[in-house]
Each structure stands twice: as C-alpha cells, then as structure tokens.
Design a protein that fits this description.
mainly alpha; 2 helices
Length: 62
C-alpha cells in the first residue's frame, strides 16, 4: 500500500550497536545494582559521563 511502512520493530534510536566484552562477573554486578533490563542504559550513561570527563580534562590541559 502507498505510504504504508511495513518495517517491523522500533524506530531508530540514533544509536550504533557495539559489542563489548566485560570481565567475568561484572555484568552480574551491574544487574544487581540496576536490574538486567537497565544494564545497557547504565553502561551508556557511565560511558557518556566518563568521555565527557576526559574531554573536559583534555581541554583544561591544552
């Protein structure tokens, strides 16, 4: 049908999938803190904060 979007699933979230290997037990520790359904969001939040911190740190040095 014209104008009908037959794609399945969620709309794009403007994210790129990246596989990350975690040390044994770290995933379970994260799950205990935030729950299994929030693991990916937690990792994204932590990485975003750390990248911003390091970028700010570099800006102060230069």
């Amino acid at each position: 049908m014209h104008g009908y979007d037959d794609r399945m699933g969620r709309p794009p979230l403007n994210v790129k999938s990246t596989n990350v290997r975690l040390p044994e037990g770290l995933g379970e520790r994260i799950d205990k803190l935030v729950g299994r359904q929030r693991r990916a969001a937690f990792i994204r939040e932590v990485l975003e904060r750390e990248v911003e911190r390091r970028e700010n740190e570099q800006g102060k040095v230069g």
